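Structure record:
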Amino acid sequence: MSERKVLNKYFPPDFDPSLIPRRRQPKNSQQVVRLMAPFSMRCNTCGEYIYKGKKFNARKETVEGEDYYGIKIFRFYIKCTLCSAEITFKTDPKNTDYAAEHGASRNFEPWREEKAVEEEDRLAKLEEEENNPMKALENRTVDSKREMDILDALQDIRARNARNERIGQSVDLLERLHMEEIETEEDRERRRAEEEDEKLVREVFAKVPASGSSAPAGASPAQVGDTTTKVITVKRKAGAEEPDLQSLLPDSARALLSVKTSIGAPAPKRKKVEGKSALGIKLKGKAKVIT
């Protein structure tokens, strides 16, 4: 049993394709094709409207004796969806469109009318220029003036865009410089605070070499420079007395403390005196009953 889906058929060795009889078909036979209505139309028999894009099973044939520069023109037959009247239309290669032929009339389309009016005006203008040289000169002058106006407007737009771009770059530069100034001020303030802290630390603490870390006897100066001595940080004393606390504070803290001392300490609160004791009344406790 052979396979159901095969791509290669068996041909016997004595097969001669020229012996197969050929069917004779009419020269202009019609084909059934599936298409959509290329434009909106109205049936002339029943008045039914057929919108663009409606699908039909149409018959297609080649129009005899008509062509456009060697391009064939095709005719299509469809039936009205309401009364089943036959409607025909054919291709229009000249305008790259379709033309209604029989059984229906094409609906009004304003954009097609505008194109037709523009084409008529252009042809009339060309004909007038051929017959009247002065009119042709005037038309060329008007066209050149219109082109110059367009070029001037384009140049103005370019100049405005360039000016806006320069202004934007200058604004960005000013903002960048302002940010750099702010950053430099912040760095200056931070550096000043660090210097004050270091100065305060140097006033309070001192570094001295640790005991037993001196250079060995008989060592050369180079060896003394190479050896690393241990250093200990100790709190410095001003003679036999400790330094004053305010002398160790920065200037901003001293100013704040001076402001607080000038305000003064709040008045001490008075103790609340109970009312009964203030009047000299004494309460006696209840006597305990001994059972």
Confidence is low (pLDDT under 50) at residues 212-227.
